[in-house]
Amino acid sequence: YYYKRNKGLPPGPVSFPFFGYSLILKDDTCHRTLERLQKKYGDVFSFTFAGTLYINMGSMKAVQEFHLTHAECFQRSNDFSIISYFFNSGVSVANGEPWKVMRKFALQQLREYGMTTVKDNMSEPLYDSIQETIDFLKAKKGEPVEIVQHLTNKCNNILRSTMFGQSGITEEQVKEINEAYAHIVAFMSITNFFYNGFLTRFIFPLKPGYWTAMKNYKIIKRILENVVNEHKSMFNKDEHPKNFIDAYLKERNDRHCKGDPTAKYFTDKALIGTLIQFVSDGVLSVALFIAIFMKHVVDHQDHQDKIYAEIVDVVGRERAPTIEDKSKLPYITAYMHEILRTFESFSVVPGQQCIKETVIRGYRIPKGAITLVNMWMCHNDPEIYSEPEKFNPSRFMCEDKSKRPDLPINFGVGRRTCIGEGYTMSQIFLFLTTIIQNFKLTYPEGSEIGNYEFLLSGKLDICAIPRIEEN
């Protein structure tokens, strides 16, 4: 039976029955362990983890073959997992027609309440928050600043306006959500993402941090349920929606009135699941992303100088950068891509589940197998990136676009890419360029260049020295 079940699978290591590599893979060394296996078995290999069959995709070519060429064979796992639990019924975990309908709607609303505010109106919350950050740093006059909390507050304001409207949710409520989500993130370790299926319901309660995560998940859910109910009580179908929730309620009402059967997908449960992801990732995750980029320019002053020189050359000092400047600032754009390529956090991520048995590269990929996006190996693929161990933004600046390497895949590949990628990267670009335009970033005196442990504490101290002293 064992031989028949595994016949035709990609090669891979022999491991413990049921437990598989769950006894071997560790959070801090997972990518290195998989790297050793890849050197032995190739970029596509298989292994089991707590009863689930995983197919490692360790090259850009492999990821494209699975998730682009054979995209119709894969979807989000319907089995119980850490993602399905915390983002239950949200757009990120939906499948089939509900996913198509909800994703299209969400993208439209992000353009309406997110990206269009970035492009079209300088007085909108994003630009206001950036200017407030500049004023805040100027007032510090080069003194040490804990930047993560400040960025979190600013991202908080941006998201409140985008998703809820200024009066749709209080600043204190979003702050409470962020604090609760930090406990959930602490439970979202790399190896916990691997647990998938019915037995996971019994395994997770035995894991450290589970009950704390559950307690804080309920806090987030309660707050958002109250916010949604408040919006429903004040909803007017004849008014133009002013935020994401109102747009969702109007879309549901309009589809019901037209007799559109897809109206059934617009449930309160799906709305809350989507909001949990948007609020959590749209504040804490974006703030940490910006802090990561800021830390990197502090660690590499030569790159900071190049970025500043490009900003002055293209934008000047008289006005703030806008999103329209992005295409004119190739070094900064390439620099952002290179940071994403070399950043090791969540270096391996479970991808999608095979929904019908297929054959890829001559290997049998059975129904129920889950792909593993090995970003560490993909981003260090020497066939794609020359000398991948070196930090080199210029690799993305080749004038011949056909010779440029593939962009990093931190936000996913194909149809299931993160719908917030554009908005997230726009915020990072505008915060980073505007801050560097006005300040030289350094560490406080006596501080040492450290690693990214601040991601665990959520704190990063920097000094922002004004480039031109005010009179």
Automatic annotation (TrEMBL):
Q: Does the keyword Magnesium apply?
A: no
Please tell me the species this chain comes from: Parasteatoda tepidariorum (Common house spider)
The UniProt similarity line reads: Belongs to the cytochrome P450 family.
Q: Which SUPFAM superfamilies match?
A: Cytochrome P450 (SSF48264)
Q: So which cofactors does this thing need?
A: heme
Single Gene Ontology MF annotation: steroid hydroxylase activity
> What transmembrane ranges does the database entry give?
180-204, 270-294
Whether Transmembrane counts among this entry's keywords is: yes
This protein's name? Cytochrome P450 2A9
Q: Where does heme bind?
A: C418
